[in-house]
Amino acid sequence: MIWLDWERVEDIVRKEKPKKVIIVGPDGIVDVLLDLGKKLETMGVRAYVSGDPSYGSCDLQLNKAYVAGADLILNVGHTIGLESIGNVRFINFQYIFDEEDIEKITELMIGYINENRLNGKIGIYTISNYYSAYTMLIKKLEGKVDIAKPGKYETLLLGQVLGCNFYSAFVPNTDYNFFLGESLFHAIGLQLSTEKETFMLDPHTKEITGVREEANKYLKASFARIAIANRAEKIGIIVGEKEGQANLQKADFISRELKKFNVSTFMIIMNEITPEKVNKFQGMDAFVETACPRIPMNVEGFKKPLLSYPEALALIKIKKKIPVTNPYRGALWF
Questions:
Q1: How many Cβ atoms are within 10 Å of 2's Cβ, its own excluded?
Q2: DSSP string for 45-99
Q3: Which DSSP state fits 129?
Q4: Do domains 2-95 and 99-210 have the same CATH topology?
Q5: In what order do the strands lie in the sheet with 306-307?
Q6: Phi-psi region for residue 146, left (φ > 0), alpha (ψ -120 to 50) or beta?
Q7: How many CA atoms, within 13 angstroms, populate the side-chain half-sphere of residue 176?
Q8: With contact defined as beta carbons under 8 Å apart, do 186 and 192 qualify?
Q9: CA distance 167 to 13
Q10: What are the strands of the beta sheet with 20-24, ordered from one edge?
Q11: How far is 250 from 25, CA to CA, in rounded Å?
Q12: Which SS3 state, helix, strand or coil, does residue 210 take?
């Protein structure tokens, strides 16, 4: 079952009285966004549903409000520890599981731990869409397994991870990680960032999968990109145009460092960093993007190596003869 915090939406409309709103969210919940827009229209609020996916709380799409003359943006499905940023209001969207489902998930996890002899302290993490199930699962597991207390990050829910922020999992003496959800990327991110064995627990299929093999594939591909970029004479530095991804200082830093090794750098800015846009810069030998670490890892079709910010830092270390074993080791990827 799916759930959207309609009471919060009503409260926002009642208190802030917006005349126009923009509704944004990930591709997978377009029907939910359309339904929300329809309900808002019945309340006398003109609603525009974004045709561009929002990839997270870093992708606010403020320009759409400017173009449409909207008062607010409702960002659905990317709940964090903040209720708002500027004129953006975060709206909670979750997959809801009943008591019977949580009981099955609990038994599945305990059985897996026992069968695979996963002794020691276990970290359990999730994303906001499964947070209700997560809190129920933690309660069910108390006293049955040794659970690590998640780290507290100011803008995250307790136990929440993002695609570029795994601070919650950086706690001492944890031996294994479990990720509750169906996002393989987040599970792989946990494995790469913490370098601890990580398992994905899919609450829909009731399956548990180890992600070490997939994480190793990501790591191998990462080093291949870095190796080719290490021979590059011309590197394009791409700055993301999205509000939470406009990392100008990081782009300038990478450019300055690369120039020390006689690499010519060219500053490029774009909104969506896609193969079609990047590939037209044929004169470049490689690229670095400081917008989102997911892009080089998840998007195929780039004809030249495209490095994320953590990979660019690894490239600089290699040029300085500093050993690098894992560019993605660390709590934060931005």
A1: 11
A2: -EEEE-SS---STT---HHHHHHHT-SEEEEES---S-SEETTEEEE-EEE---H
A3: G
A4: yes
A5: 264-270, 234-240, 286-289, 306-307
A6: beta
A7: 21
A8: no
A9: 34
A10: 46-49, 20-24, 72-76, 88-91, 84-85
A11: 27
A12: strand
Residue with tokens 């997978």: 28
Residue 134's φ and ψ, nearest 5 degrees, are -60, -50
Report pLDDT for 128.
94
Beta-carbon count within 10 A of 135 CB: 15
Model pLDDT, residue 223: 97
> What one-character DSSP code corresponds to residue 325?
S
State the pTM of this model. Answer: 0.92
Segment (H or E) for 236: strand 234-240
Domain 219-319 maps to which CATH number in 3.40.50.300, 2.40.50.140, 3.40.50.11860, 3.50.50.60?
3.40.50.11860
Look at domain 2-95 and name its CATH class: alpha beta
Question: What digits encode the pLDDT tens for the residues 51-89?
Answer: 999 988 888 999 999 999 999 999 999 988 889 999 999
The per-residue pLDDT for 327 is 96
| CATH code assigned to 99-210 | 3.40.50.11850
The whole-number mean pLDDT for each consecutive block of 10 residues of the chain, a chain of 334 residues, reads: 95 97 94 96 97 90 94 94 92 96 97 95 96 97 95 94 95 95 95 97 97 97 97 97 90 98 98 95 97 91 97 98 96 92
Per-residue exposure over 15-51, b if at least 16 CB sit within 10 Å of its own CB, e if not: eeebeebbbbbbeebeebbeebbebbeeeebebbbbe
* b/e per residue 284-318 (b: at least 16 CB within 10 A): bbbbbbbbbbbbbbeeeebebbbbbbbbbbbbbeb
Domain ranges of the chain: 2-95, 99-210, 219-319
Rounded to 5 degrees, what angle do the CA atoms 245, 301, 199 make?
Answer: 70
- The 3-state DSSP class for residue 117 equals coil
* Distance in angstroms (rounded) separating the CA atoms of residues 293 and 272: 13
